[in-house]
Known about the structure:
alpha/beta; Alpha-Beta Plaits; 2 domains; 21 helices; 15 strands
Amino acid sequence: MAKQKKQDFSKLVKTLNPKQKAYVNLKLRNPTRGDYLLCVFNLVPFKGANILQAASEVAAESSTGTNFRVKTETAFSREMNALVYDLDLRRNLVWIAYPWRLFDRGGNVQNILTYIVGNVLGMKEVIALKLLDVWFPPAMLEQYDGPSYTLDDMRKYLDVYGRPILGTIVKPKMGLTSAEYAEVCYDFWTGGGDFVKNDEPQADQDFCPYKKMVKHVKFAMDKAVKETGRKKVHSFNVSSPDFDTMIERCELIVDAGFEQGSYAFLIDGITAGWMAVQTLRRRYPEVFIHFHRAAHGAFTRVENPMGFSVLVLSKFARLAGASGIHTGTAGVGKMAGTPGEDIVAAHEILRFKSKGHFFEQSWSKIPSRDKDSMRLVQEDLAHHLILDDDEWRGVKKCSPIVSGGLNPTLLKLFIDLMGGVDFITTMGAGCHAHPRGTKQGAAALVQSCEAYTQGIDIQEYAKTHKELKLAIDFFESKQSNVAKLNKKVVKKKTVKKKK
Ligand code: CAP
Ligand code: MG
Ligand code: MG
């Protein structure tokens, strides 16, 4: 954390009542010593309270306390108090340390979030409270699953390296019969695409019964694999009314004869919940767990004063064991987002060690001074396959899934922003709105990726690739003004970065 010039908080400390004082320690020695989960919040106090009073109330409510000091507290319970340990008055930032013994044993992510972004988001003392970054100590990481089946395993299965995994979402989002749905999958796969996902609301609708959708997708996949000689993946949305039904849907897919690696389980992690994410991770360690984050905007949009950042959501998804999570298109696509949010989140969940907004997170479960873990970091930077046989030493990578208003003309722009190709991209309208339909939309996506990997400008490449040419003519002309504006802004940012 960049140390500000020491600001004087002594006046603020004097305003605290005895209960508030029990949740503040601005002299906390070595907060990264290993027994604390660390958080940085943007906090604006409600009028009548100062930032330290409000922060101490947040630390109380999100750990052991409530609005009055209680007679029932003990010496031990006080040990479990969260502590405000730093402030930045200029930026309305507060740092809070949580003894992670507070959290449910057995690696429960839902429990942590209930503490640190639970009741506190509803407290009267704050008019803004947003969790911007979080830091997990090595010893705590040992308690959590982390991903099992990763993007590296999917690459091995698909035999796809050196480029993003190219995917789509079947559109229209809803309303196709299972046969029509599978037809779209077939067209995308035979057009050259790798990966098809259900959309986030796809479930067991009467016009597209789950059982029939699975059966038709299997038929389409077998046909496409045979015709193309390439492996394919389908990500099935298994979000359900209850856990039994969720497992039933998973088993339906397994029993349909899909070979291991050819299917992923998609879960609407926010609306279905963290228990569903962790149940899938624990029941199906050999399957790619695809975290769709529908409704995340309520917590993450930058203009929203309450909630948490894309970075925080993504880090907890990795801790919970998601193999991949949507991390946004950094303003290039249709969803609100910025490089500062989306790219930082993507790097933080992909790499073994990278910088967040305030913390440098090493995903090593052994103390970072350990020379072994430093070797792992170097190996990871060289993009070797690490942790395959020594998961005990670190948390495996979680893949950014980049989607939302993208089309083949935007692929290079995003890769340049991302600074790498280690992600899955899914383009819905970006394929199915192609003037010649899905198959040629997929071909255009593949061609835009070929152009990128060969270092050829897509306009140049389009001269000899008609599907790409049609895509460029169509999407460039149809881009919404917002997208055009975004593209200009993002392009300017990328160019500036290059210098
Ligand atoms: C993309 C998508 C995804 C978004 C969600 C949609 O479709 O299917 O759900 O990616 O946003 O419904 O918008 P298009 P995010 O490709 O047709 O836009 O990935 O930011 O969570
Ligand atoms: Mg969708
Ligand atoms: Mg939640």
